[in-house]
Design goal:
Layout lengths: L4 H5 L9 E3 L19 E7 L2 E8 L1 H15 L15 H8 L5 H19 L9 E8 L3 E9 L5 E2 L6 E2 L8 H14 L2 E4 L10 E10 L2 E14 L9 H5 L9 E5 L13 E15 L5 H7 L5 H34 L1 E2 L4 H21 L16 H5 L2 H20 L6 H14 L6 H4 L2 H23 L1 E2 H8 L1
Parallel strand pairs: 1-4, 7-14
Antiparallel strand pairs: 2-3, 3-5, 4-5, 6-13, 8-12, 9-10, 9-12, 11-12
Length: 473
């Protein structure tokens, strides 16, 4: 399912805008007249999905910014006869010039004007604006130029023509047997095999030490290690070469480390392991009967246990079938979608996917430090590896929004309330989540619901490929 609107739309993108000041006296850098009538806003598309605004903040708004700037930085000034932080604004301006307040005042004026200009035109920024101050004075206010990438609108065609691979939910007796045998294996008792020759399925207790070019290497030694033969826990070839030996013997095993092995120093290198087999253990499997069912499940009889396994496998298969149908439906939609995605959208989504990948690694107990660069940021190659997925997710989202518009899919206030309630339960909050949402956030929730409904609509009209073959025949 495509990610939600908050991940894609990156709203309120003016928090850390760097203002590039230029004093050009009502002429822009190309000599073009940039004088503005009161309240005038100039808007032009300077490239696909990139908009330029030229707009002003009048002298009254700029004066409010100057007052706000004074309140922010007045504690930095000292003057004879005044306590620190109590120097009047006029005194500071006389000593340092009015311009000492300009940075904060300009920032104030920009944030009071720019967001409304964007919102009033129904545009959704997907990048930080590139901002320049074209002119500034206390008498005339400020004139800004802001270039910003905006969310594109996708064009879709033949979106109801998807076909999907149909996956059945029938469960065979063999599949049930396989699940029971898994449980049986997990509940097996290990007993000594005596002088038994090692074969697949046995457990060998071993000591081992590895050598590369005759020298031991770090991490290549272990003692009293229980190795299940056939488990694939060791390097390819190690377990297979143990077969045929028995307890008390000292085989030497030669393997080659994979080229992509996690430890760089041994990648692609040949190693010899000296092994001592302490003991060979065999699995004593329990009988498959009612007692076994009662031991490994909540059921008293083997029949009930088998019925439960069947039901769970059917649920898994139905879920897999629905996931496959969704993937096929989205692939068809994406193939019939035309849209140019701004680079900042792809970059943001790639980074978000990389961050999510690292979070999952850490939660699983893996050390992800090798994916962090010297500046403490996620390494660029990790982010770049997510680009293809990021672009596909964004395109799917934009396409589903286009379908929602084309099909006039509506979202009621009640649906928005239900969504807010679900979120409230998810975060275990007693607060009124809906009332705390801004209007933009409510629109995001509404968009998320519409996108889900659009996807369900497309899945409902998609046709199984087998049905198509039957029709052709």
């Amino acid at each position: 399912m495509p990610n939600d609107a908050k991940e894609l739309e990156r709203e309120n993108r003016t928090e850390t805008v760097e203002l590039n000041e230029s004093s050009v006296d009502e002429k822009d850098l190309n000599g073009e007249d940039i004088s503005l009538a009161p309240g005038e806003v100039r808007v032009e598309n300077i490239e696909e999905n990139k908009v330029r605004f030229i707009f002003g903040a009048d002298k009254d708004l700029f004066e409010r910014g100057m007052k706000a700037a004074y309140d922010i930085i007045k504690t930095k000034f000292n003057s004879p006869g005044f306590r620190k932080g109590k120097v009047p604004r006029k005194i500071i301006e006389l000593n340092y010039g009015k311009e000492v307040f300009y940075d904060e005042a300009i920032d104030f004026a920009f944030h009071e004007t720019y967001p409304n200009l964007v919102n009033d035109r129904g545009l959704i920024p997907v990048s930080q604006p590139e901002v320049a101050v074209l002119s500034v004075s206390t008498e005339a206010g400020v004139v800004f130029r802001a270039d910003v990438y905006v969310k594109p609108v996708a064009e879709v065609s033949n979106y109801t023509g998807a076909t999907y691979e149909e996956i059945g939910a029938d469960v065979s007796e063999e599949e049930i047997d396989a699940k029971i045998n898994e449980a049986r294996d997990q509940n097996a008792r290990l007993i000594s095999g005596g002088d038994k020759i090692i074969e697949k399925g046995d457990v060998a207790t071993i000591d081992y030490e590895g050598f590369i070019d005759g020298e031991p290497f770090e991490g290549g030694e272990g003692h009293d290690f229980d190795l299940a033969i056939g488990s694939g826990r060791f390097i390819a070839g190690f377990e297979e070469q143990l077969t045929g030996y028995k307890a008390g013997e000292n085989p030497e095993i030669t393997v080659r480390f994979p080229d992509d092995y996690h430890e760089e120093s041994v990648r692609g290198r040949e190693a010899v392991f000296k092994v001592f087999i302490r003991e060979v253990k065999i699995k004593e499997l329990p009988d498959i009967d009612d007692d076994f069912a009662a031991d490994v499940s909540e059921f008293d009889t083997l029949k009930e246990y088998r019925d439960d396994i069947r039901q769970k496998l059917e649920q898994i298969k139905r879920r897999q079938a629905d996931e496959k149908k969704e993937i096929d439906t989205l692939d068809h939609l994406i193939a019939n979608t035309s849209v140019t995605i701004p680079e900042p959208m792809i970059a943001d989504e790639s980074k978000a996917l990389a961050q999510n990948l690292l979070r999952n690694l850490y939660r699983s107990g893996f050390d992800g430090s090798q994916f962090i660069d010297e500046n403490g940021e996620i390494a660029s190659y990790v982010v770049d590896a997510q680009r293809e997925t990021a672009e596909k997710r964004i395109k799917a989202r934009l396409a589903l929004e286009a379908v929602a518009r084309a099909e006039n899919i509506s979202v009621s206030d009640e649906e928005i309330k239900d969504e807010a309630s679900k979120f409230k339960e998810k975060v275990n909050s007693d607060e009124d989540v809906l009332s705390d949402l801004s209007e933009r956030e409510k629109q995001n929730v509404k968009s998320d619901i519409a996108v889900r409904k659009a996807l369900e609509f497309l899945k409902s009209v998609a046709k199984p490929r087998e049905a198509e073959k039957n029709i052709e025949n």
